[in-house]
Amino acid sequence: MTAYTSTAGLALRAENVSKSYGKRVVLDIDHVELSPGETLALLGPSGAGKSTLLAILGLLEKPDSGQVFLDGRPVSARDRGARMQMAAAFQSPYLFKGTIAENVAYGLKLRGVSRAKRSAAVAEVLERVGLGGWEGRSALTLSGGEAQRVALARALVLKPRVLLLDEPLSSLDPLIKSRLSQDFARIIHEDKMTTVYVTHDQNEAMAVADSMIVMRDGRAAASGHVEDVMGLPPDEWTATFLGSEAPLRGVVTTSAEGLLGVDLGGPVVYSTGELAPGTHVIAGVRPEDVLLFEAGTEIPRSSARNRFDGTVVALRLWGVMYHLVLDIGGARVASHVSRSSVREMEIAEGSSVQVVFKATAVRVRPDVAGSGMMEA
Ligand code: ADP
Ligand code: MG
Fold first, then answer.
1. What's the CA gap between 274 and 251, in Å, rounded?
2. Which of 96, 119, 250, 285 lies in disulfide reach of 264, CB 3.0 to 4.6 Å?
3. Does the beta carbon of 55 sit less than 6 angstroms from any atom of ligand 1?
4. Start-to-end CA span in the chain (Å)
């Protein structure tokens, strides 16, 4: 290995952590890195190992192997000082009988903080989570969303070095969840909290996180900046999980002034980027960036470089939208289209359409596996 990444300055890091129950390996992760102030989402289906990894990172559980580092220092679940620098909130917050203030102040009390300092800190944090003045209310009569705000306040009030959130919004209904995820994102970022955020919901991950690890069967199926992973999932499983098509494979044929032409074995798509002609790449475009127009109609003036005659090969409902799979001369891209558009354009399987997307919407990465140059 010649690759060397500096780990200096990272707030939280884990190397080669694994965990098994009996003979079953439920976690096997090479490395996790968080810079100070960064929010990392652990995204994946149920059973993927997200909570296990979170518990290990939060020093709540001991890995079978591997090491966690806090500010560069090796730490373990036995290290009380390090554990005091972590604070967590979970899907079903345990709030005890009493006032909101008592619940939020509890951790401070355990840490021996004076009554006066406690009430000042509680008032401030309640304000931040949108519950200003709620100190005296009973903690047991709250809605699910309010209870989660209290749980977040209870963690934030400790001013932890690392904040750990395990599916904090999963039990809420979609509307509240969407609003709360935006609120949580704002609060976490305002506080410059280093945060690990577990969710199985990609929209939530998009709303709160800077980077993500997509987990599958205890392993990292993909990791990187949210935009990069969402924009170009590295393989078919991850793409399907994230609601896009499998990555396209092709070769760069032209490269000039930041614009690449990528031959997909028939259609050529244009992308922004700087890669040499001949480079084998994987490419992808998010379904929400792909526009459809009726076949034969004039397309309104636009700067979109990519225009194809395509055929609808599949369509299915995807939330409030339709997810359409389109064949553009041998390559497949997906598009999300509203129900009313599908109705108005009379789109069905086999329909001919015009497919349009911008060069800036196309993600391209060198394809090490496809170039035949993989190192032994
Ligand atoms: P996620 O949070 O992604 O849903 P978990 O980390 O909770 O996944 O669990 C990963 C896997 O480990 C699951 O298959 C789960 O059943 C298993 N698992 C978790 N905790 C235990 C345990 N205490 N004993 C046995 N198996 C466990
Ligand atoms: Mg879990």
1. 13
2. 250
3. no
4. 12
Indicate whether 64 and 199 sit together in one domain.
yes
What CATH number should be reported for the domain holding residue 33? Answer: 3.40.50.300
Q: Which of 206, 241, 276 is the last residue of a domain?
A: 241
Cα 320 off chain centre by: 21
Looking at residue 5, its pLDDT comes to 56
Q: Are residues 269 and 337 in the same domain?
A: yes
Same domain, 55 and 32: yes
Give, for ligand 1, the residue of 18, 20, 24, 26 to mutate: max count of ligand atoms closer than 8 Å to Cβ.
26
Residue pair 268/262 in contact (Cβ under 8 Å)? The answer is: yes
Tell me the pLDDT band of 63, cut-offs 50, 70 and 90: very high
Neighbours of ion ligand 2 (CB under 5 A): 51
| Position 172, amino acid | L
Residue 2 lies in a domain: no
Neighbouring CB atoms inside 10 A of 153's CB total 27
**What pLDDT, on the 0 to 100 scale, is given for residue 373?**
43
Long-range pairs of 260-264 with CB within 8 A, sequence gap ≥ 24: 260/364, 262/362, 262/364, 264/330, 264/331
Q: Which numbered atom of ligand 1 lies nearest the CA of 52?
A: 6
- Kindly state if the Cβ of 46 falls inside 6 Å of ligand 1: yes
Q: Ligand 1 centre from 165 Cα, in Å?
A: 17
Q: How far is the CA of 361 from the centre of ligand 1 (A)?
A: 37
Provide the angle, in degrees to the nearest 10, between the axes of the packed helices 115-128 and 144-156. 130
Between CA 33 and CA 68 the distance in angstroms is 10
Regarding whether 219 and 254 lie in a shared domain, the answer is no
Q: What is the pLDDT of residues 278-336, one digit of tens each?
A: 999 999 998 989 999 999 888 887 779 999 999 999 999 987 899 999 999 999 999 99
Please tell me the distance between residue 49's alpha carbon and the centre of ligand 2 in angstroms: 7
Say how many domains are in the chain.
Answer: 2
Residues 143 and 284 occupy one common structural domain: no
Structural domain span for residue 277: 248-366
Q: How close is the Cα of 77 to the center of ligand 2, in Å?
A: 19
Pick the atom of ligand 1 nearest to 218's CA.
10
Where does a domain end: 207, 241, 275? 241
